[in-house]
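Possible regression after last week's pipeline update?

I re-ran a chain I had predicted before the update to compare outputs. Posting the input and the new output here so someone can diff against the archived version. Not blocking, just want to make sure nothing changed silently.
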Amino acid sequence: KTPDVYIDSRSTVSEVRNWLRAKDFDARIQTALEGYDGKQILTLRRRDLENIFGHEGTRLDSQITLSRNHSHYTQGKSSELRAILAKAKQRAESFQEASETIEEYFKETNDEANA
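New output (post-update):
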């Protein structure tokens, strides 16, 4: 079992290097990933890691997944969804305001006609 050490998207190159060592990855992986920061490491894909590093790539992906989960890392998809939902809410609110304004206008026009 390796130590409970994690990286996140703000991890520096040095912190990633220390994380790879603490997780006991072989020199080949450490050398190949030299210069990567946390953001770069967290975007790596399992398929690519397995193609490049074989069985150790699978283990590396598992450790990256643990770090992603620990730091609640997302690749922007949830923030994109939040932006879409906020825009939809804004449109719905604008539509509601327009409907209320039109409704008020017709009510006033109807009241004036009946007076």
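Follow-up from reviewer: compared with the archived run. The radius of gyration is 27 Å. Marking as no regression found.
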